[in-house]
Design goal:
The complex is a heterodimer of chains A (about 325) and B (about 110).
Chain A: H1 15-19, H2 32-40, H3 43-46, H4 60-70, E1 74-79, E2 82-88, H5 89-98, H6 105-108, E3 116-117, H7 122-132, E4 136-140, E5 146-151, H8 152-175, E6 188-194, H9 204-215, H10 220-240, E7 244-251, E8 254-261, H11 269-272, H12 282-286, H13 294-301, E9 304-310, E10 314-322, H14 327-330
Parallel strand pairs in A: 3-4
Antiparallel strand pairs in A: 1-2, 4-5, 6-7, 7-8, 8-10, 9-10
Helix pairs in contact in A: 2-8, 9-10, 10-13
Chain B: H1 3-10, E1 13-16, E2 28-30, H2 34-37, E3 46-49, H3 54-62, E4 67-70, H4 78-87, E5 90-93, H5 98-110
Parallel strand pairs in B: 2-3, 3-4, 4-5
Antiparallel strand pairs in B: 1-5
Helix pairs in contact in B: 3-4
Classes of the chains: A alpha+beta (about 325), B alpha/beta (about 110).
Chain lengths: ~325, ~110
């Protein structure tokens, strides 16, 4: 039998993948909820786990039979969990035309493979489909063993499921009664999901809040205070939390920004609120953050500041700024 | 001194021309720590930094800075030009160090 070397998985997509420049879903204009989803979901969350495969010694006609029976257009060639190649529909057609359909898969399989890793964000998978135009990608784990296969249909199904859950949650959120501390005249409510370590999008929520307030002609000094609070809280969610939600509402002359995360929680809240204290690592500091000034700064620009936290549960920070009325109403 | 004047004094390379290009600069902040920049309460400031990242531009937009000048002739990630254009932020690169940039601009402002 011909000795075929296992394919070498390519490195994760280069900076273009990380920046999102080449994605079909461009980060600049897609809804934040969708961008959060494709960052949060991993390839393992959407892939098909039970993979139909063959060994190298299996004849091509057997692979053809399996593909017909299972309604699949490609079949990985695997031995002891390691991926050696892939037999595609095109390989089968060539084998029939060339008269070598009885030969082993190992001789004629496609060996130049592009694979995904199971812990890559879904955005990488979308990028790969856009970049390589393949119908499917084998998925390897960190030990380089085949653990799944992903096609575009898997991605569509997972995104629809998750979006459905998200819409249902948003509908409940909008329908809930107005919090008593913001008053009955609330006329704007926005929610921004924020993903852990998503520096690519960090700051977009605060920018959107600032833009919305300027468009409604609130006093610039007030807009600045709200924007600074929102930005610091958004960066905190990205840097320190496992992901969460930034909620902003205005009404009754007040702006309220609430950052609520899903963990890990703060052990000593008083310490965390002290000037210059931070648990940020060197990577975060190299990005210009993590000096331990964030919460202090939120407190500085807020008329009312609250923080509650429980380890293992999460943290909620609330910043209220008395913004008054829009300038045109004042006139 | 306008942002355009500052770019001219430093012989800096203009990467993105935003609405702040012709604004008058009354305050200059030189920092690589965005948390420090967020503490400054001056509108239309000029931000000098050796940090080349998208977050510099987002921070500048939040505090209402007129422009960002990246010092030390740093090469910028490709995304920065696009983010600057999206935010309408003026962005330039100066070859000088942060210290020399500050000296040059101070001399121009006090002359």
């Amino acid at each position: 039998m011909e000795n075929v070397s296992p394919p070498t998985p390519p490195p994760p997509p280069p900076s273009e993948g990380a920046s999102g420049d080449a994605l079909s879903l461009t980060t600049a204009y897609e809804p934040l909820v969708l961008m959060e989803l494709i960052q949060r979901l991993k390839v393992r969350d959407v892939m098909t786990h039970s993979v139909v495969s063959v060994e190298r010694c299996i004849p091509l006609w057997e692979a053809q039979r399996l593909m017909k029976e299972k309604h699949i257009s490609g079949i990985p060639v695997v031995e002891e969990g390691r991926l050696f190649g892939l037999v595609s529909m095109e390989d089968i057609i060539c084998a029939i035309e060339g008269g070598y359909i009885a030969q082993p898969c190992g001789h004629y399989m496609t060996t130049k493979l592009v694979v995904l890793e199971d812990d890559m964000p879904l955005s990488f998978a979308i990028h790969y489909f856009d970049r390589f135009h393949f119908g499917r990608f084998p998925v390897l784990n960190r030990d380089r063993l085949l653990v799944g296969i992903v096609c575009q249909r898997d991605i569509n199904r997972a995104l629809l499921d998750e979006l459905s859950k998200e819409f249902s949650r948003m509908e409940k959120s909008v329908a809930r009664s107005t919090p008593p501390d913001i008053g009955p005249t609330t006329y704007m409510l926005r929610e921004f999901p924020v993903a852990k370590y998503d520096f690519e999008n960090a700051g977009k929520a605060a920018n959107a809040i600032k833009t919305a307030m300027l468009e409604r002609k609130f006093p610039p000094k007030m807009v600045r205070r709200v924007a600074v609070a929102a930005y610091e809280l958004e960066i905190n969610l990205v840097v320190h939390s496992d992901g969460g939600m930034l909620t902003w509402q205005i009404g009754n002359g007040r702006s309220e920004v609430v950052a609520q995360d899903k963990g890990p929680g703060i052990e000593d809240v008083a310490w965390a609120c002290r000037d210059g204290t931070s648990t940020a690592n060197e990577w975060i500091r190299s990005l210009g953050f993590g000096a331990g000034l964030g919460l202090v700064n939120v407190k500085r620009v807020s008329d009312s500041f609250e923080i509650t936290s429980k380890v293992g549960v999460g943290t909620t920070v609330r910043s209220i700024v008395n913004i008054g009325a829009p300038l045109e109403e004042q006139e | 001194m306008t942002v355009q004047d500052a770019i001219s004094v430093l012989n800096a390379e203009l990467i993105a021309s935003g609405e702040g290009l012709l604004k008058k600069v009354n305050h200059i902040v030189a920092s690589d720590l965005m948390s420090d920049v967020l503490l400054v309460d001056e509108e239309d400031m000029l931000l000098l930094t050796s940090l080349a990242s998208d977050q510099v531009l987002r921070t500048a937009q939040i505090v209402g800075a007129a422009a960002v000048i990246v010092v030390n002739g740093k090469s910028l990630p490709s995304s920065m030009k696009k983010v600057a254009a999206d935010l309408g932020m003026t962005l330039a690169i100066a070859k000088q160090s942060k210290f020399d940039t500050c000296i040059a601009l101070h001399q121009r402002m006090t002359s």
